[in-house]
Amino acid sequence: MIRNFQQLQQMAAERKQRSGVKPVVAVTNAADREVIAAVKALRDSGMADAILTGRRDEIEELCCREGLEPFPEIAEAEDEIEAAAAAVALVHGGRAHVLMKGLVNSSVFLKAILNPQQGLRGEGLLCHLAAFEVPGWPKLQFHTDGGMNLFPDLEQKRRILELAVEALHRLGVDEPRVAVLSANEVVNPKVPSSVAAAQLQVWNAEGRIGGCIVEGPVAMDVALSAEAAAHKHIESRVAGDADLFLVPNIEAGNMVGKTLMYCAHAKMAGVILGAACPVVMVSRADNAEAKLNSLALALACLSE
Ligand code: COD
User: Fold this and answer.
1) 144 lies in the same domain as 115
2) Is the pLDDT of residue 23 over 90?
3) Same domain? 285 vs 240
4) Counting atoms of ligand 1 from 1, which one is nearest the CA of 116?
5) What angle do CA 230, 233, 238 make, to 5 degrees?
6) Tally of domains in the chain
7) If you average pLDDT over residues 32-44, what whole number do you get?
């Protein structure tokens, strides 16, 4: 169980010590104060080094202001499209092990990763995994996919689940408890998410999806509360103890995440899985601390 982002950062630092190799993060358009502050914190923590892409003059000025000296290596790029291509090329060339989104539009960034020739597409689907530290909640909550796939079908949900479970194994959660969310615990053919959730639970019971405990469909109250499950006479191994929440689609995932952040003061980190390397997916509005948490998540997801 990972209690909070501080523990996640420790895990990322220990992972580096075990492997003996200091990972390098390629930062896409680093010409932003919060990005530079996050890179400084990253370097100070010893978790990884960074190579920055973007306009050299702007980046160097920000490095001076934030005390990031000596300057990290900079790959010159005129705009966000060039910067995305340069950062992806650093991963292709084996110079970087993790890719990070800096001051760049999400769609431009994702399209650079998905580019069939120069991108970082692996064998199959890519998906977004978010981690939330919610005040008063005993462990990090992992949510997928509220950030990349729009309306995944059953097969895509299965792949998203497998990618997220694999990442949680790397984070030391050996048998994640997975709540496949819908609006109710009863399968209703008129609610596609409930039908898909039930099938994922069956595949898990049959051993076709392994390494985790999957229950679905479950409503959010049951996923979050053993008392709610008992009250509804639902026997559950996941209720109140879910590690991973598989959301029905990007709209639901986005709304749950934003509600956690704005109403429950949660902190969020995000990573894209299934690409040639873990990809740090931050919002341009995130502060340096949030960006550092996403860096820690991606670094802890690296295979050893
Ligand atoms: N995994 C692997 N390949 C993919 C994926 C994926 N998740 N998505 C698309 N592809 C491939 C397709 O097979 C196709 O070959 C090519 O990429 C283009 O596919 P399109 O035309 O469906 O995709 P795009 O380029 O229009 O958009 C892909 C995005 C990922 C940009 C799009 O799905 C998107 O905008 N997602 C949501 C991003 C977002 O707003 N997040 C919330 C805020 S961070």
Assistant:
1) no
2) yes
3) no
4) 15
5) 55
6) 2
7) 96
pTM: 0.96
| Residue of higher predicted confidence among 304 and 216 | 216
- Give the residue, out of 101, 107, 250, 256, with the most ligand 1 atoms within 8 A of its beta carbon, to mutate for a pocket test: 107
CATH of the domain at 239: 3.40.718.10
Q: Are 182 and 191 in contact (CB under 8 A)?
A: yes
Least confident of 12-16, 82-86, 112-116, 140-144: 12-16
Phi and psi based region of residue 236 (left: phi greater than 0; alpha: psi -120 to 50; beta: remaining): beta
The answer to whether residue 270 is domain-embedded is: no
Residue 38 lies in a domain: yes
Per residue in 165-194, pLDDT (tens digit) is 999 999 999 999 999 999 999 999 999 999
Q: Looking at the domain assignment, is residue 114 inside a domain?
A: yes
Dist. CA 262–CA 38, nearest whole Å: 22
**Position 268 in a domain:** no
Query: 26 lies in which domain range?
Result: 5-122+275-300
- How confident is the prediction for the chain on average, in pLDDT? 95
Residue 20 has pLDDT above 90, yes or no: no
| Mutation to probe ligand 1, out of 100, 106, 110 (largest number of atoms < 8 A from CB) | 110
